[in-house]
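Feature request, filed as a ticket because there's no other form

It would be nice if the structure record came with a short human-readable summary line next to the tokens. Right now we just get the raw output. Example of a typical job, pasted below so the devs can see what we mean:
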Amino acid sequence: MKLRNDSLLANVDGPPTELIFGDWYPALRSDLLRKGKTTTSLLLGVPLLLGRKNDGRIFAMRDLCPHRGIPLSAGWFDGEHVQCKYHGWKFEPCGGQCAEIPSLTQFDTLQPGKIFAGAYPCVEQDGYAWVYVPKPGENRAPASLPPVPELPKFGPRFTTAHLQADLPCNVDHGIIGLMDPAHGPFVHRAWWWRSAASIHEKTKHFEPIPEGFRMSPHTPSSNSAPYKLIGKPETTIDFSLPNRRFETVVARKNGEITHWFASLTTVTPVTASTCRIDVIAAWSMLTWLPIVRPVAMWFGKRFVRQDQETMMEQAEGLRFRPAMMLIDDADKPAKWYFALKQRRLSGEGEHPLTGPVELHWRS
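Raw output as currently delivered:
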């Protein structure tokens, strides 16, 4: 389910930011890719043509013909080859290799097979088409790729749901909003979640993980009512570059997991000044009851919509490029994110967390 407000999104763009290439990003829901059909997407400012071949494999190509630059999406796809509308050049879409140039004659020495359109590694995982977007100038299919992100699962029976929302701000503002622990009672104020009166002091422990940090296993906040449905659970939250927040909530009895909830939220840069939230969630409770999923989707849609509306309003102010004021301890995760990002981009520096840290805030 996708949340939009095109009239607002068209009129508010925040300032751009530097993007992290050389990693996997979700381009779109994979159920939108039908055999013999293509669709388009935009990741990190790169125009993409995505589709599914007759054998079921999905692909992602740069949506530009290497001949004259016309979008390949203007042409045709027969389930095996993408054909350019301008001069009929054909390409095998998974690797990008040119299969035919109709204008060549017996007198031409050009070998079509030596020509390649842009093609990117593309994998179907957890209901998304994940695309590896290389660094500019990098081989589009490096010999060694990082693992494709995967939603944690703790049993064979579970229900899943997906949500999506466009944001008119750059990925940095989207991510620090995602990890911000203090906005809940204000942005997400509702009878079924939190109220202003529920604010109280909290203490959380954090620890470093590769390219990110973890909120160590803890009992969920007492003012987060939905978690009570699981029983007496334990929550762990991980953030890792370039854009991923994993949350797992598990309840145990005699050491065995009895109920669980897991989510993977990504904030994906569409351009240098706009981004998109994608959420996939899975849970083990009441999988046999049909009404549970639509009810969960209703609450989830409301929750994400509250974030989206707030970011739209913030984007109005960001147009004037205000300086940010990050305070301790509630804004410490945002500081860690910026330090981790700079470390990734420059290839230099130490992890901002040298060991376990205890933070305090009210929310």
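Something like this underneath would help us a lot:
Helices lie at 6-9, 171-179, 184-187, 292-318, 332-346.
The domain at 159-362 is CATH 3.90.380.10 (Naphthalene 1,2-dioxygenase Alpha Subunit; Chain A, domain 1).
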